[in-house]
Design brief:
Layout lengths: L19 E6 L6 E7 L4 E7 L5 E4 L4 E6 L5 E6 L4 E6 L7 E5 L6 E6 L4 E6 L6 E5 L10 E5 L5 E5 L2 E7 L18 E3 L5 E6 L3 E6 L2 E7 L4 E3 L5 E3 L5 E7 L7 E7 L4 E8 L4 E7 L17
Antiparallel strand pairs: 1-2, 1-24, 2-3, 4-5, 5-6, 6-7, 8-9, 9-10, 10-11, 12-13, 13-14, 15-16, 16-17, 17-18, 19-21, 20-21, 21-22, 22-23
Length: 299
């Protein structure tokens, strides 16, 4: 199937696509942008950021949360009207947050920080971050970290610094914890079920329910995982995976959609804008209701 290209064409405000992707893009030294795209790559809305967000997650289906490592570390949120606000910044527990996630109906955010070497929890109300897991003796200096929170409150985590995909439940310690999977890779949780998924280089995605493996999904021929595996469940339960041409270092990036129950796979579109850092999927939000405004720090 030929990949469709993103476009800034006029889209009716009441248009509700099959699924919507929220994509954070930019570089480490540039301002950032978050795009709202339909399943054909058409831009429904976009929101400029003061700095590039390296992590993005869905919050209760009516907003996205952002992890921004620059300027002392920021957790920001864009609500369903397009309003950008700062949830937390310059917290000692999160000096360099790179990924953020929340479970389906929770206001608690779990954030991965690759300088503090830990997972910390905060909330949509901006409460002081509390350390959830501390990884002693490890140095997480790569952007390729991933975190997700399941509907059963289990926290899924992976980093290139330590081999494997880990699943934490309750207050169990990371010390001595054995990984569910032997190789590090991106993780995602379904906001409406107990399913979750993890990527395994170079082209494999495994779907679980709890600790029981349900399916193995492979990327189409000629494609490999982008950035160690960026993936997200859609509101309907399909799984979207970012892939690149396997014969190039960076390559052109494509979004691949898997209907897990029907064993169906299709290429959605090819990404053509700034360097993609992360993405999530959720309901359509009408960002164009909110007039653009200048970013203002709470400090």
């Amino acid at each position: 199937m030929a990949a469709l290209q993103p476009t800034d064409g006029v889209i009716p405000q009441d248009y509700i696509p099959e699924l919507v992707l929220y994509i954070t893009a930019g570089t480490e030294t540039s301002p950032g942008m978050v795009y709202e795209c339909d399943d054909k790559g058409r831009v429904l809305g976009k929101k400029p950021l003061p700095y590039t967000a390296t992590g993005i997650g869905l919050h209760r289906g009516h907003g996205v949360i952002l992890a921004i490592p620059r300027d002392g570390g920021k957790i920001m949120e864009i609500d369903d009207t397009g309003k950008l606000s700062t949830v937390l910044e310059k917290d000692p527990a999160l000096p360099h947050p790179v990924k953020a996630a929340a479970s389906g109906q929770s206001d608690t955010y779990v954030v991965a920080d690759n300088i503090a070497n830990q997972l910390a929890a905060t909330s949509s109300g901006g409460q002081k971050a509390k350390v959830y897991q501390r990884f002693e003796g490890q140095q997480y200096t790569s952007q390729n970290m991933s975190v997700a929170v399941g509907n059963d409150k289990a926290v899924l985590f992976s980093s290139e610094a330590v081999p494997g995909v880990f699943r934490f439940t309750g207050n169990e310690s990371a010390s001595g914890k054995k990984p569910i999977l032997p190789t590090s890779g991106g993780v995602a949780a379904d906001p409406k079920s107990m399913r979750w998924a993890a990527a395994q280089e170079p082209n494999l995605v495994l779907v679980y329910e709890g600790e029981q493996q349900l399916k193995k999904l492979r990327l189409p021929p000629g494609k490999s995982l982008y950035r160690n595996g960026l993936l997200s469940f859609s509101p309907a339960g399909s799984l979207i995976v970012a892939a690149k041409d396997e014969d190039t270092q960076a390559g052109q990036v494509y979004f691949i959609c898997y209907d897990i129950d029907k064993d169906d796979v299709r290429t959605m579109f090819q990404w053509k804008f700034e360097t993609m850092q992360d993405f999530t999927s959720g309901p359509r939000m009408l960002w164009n209701r909110q007039s653009p405004s200048q970013y203002k720090s709470t400090f």
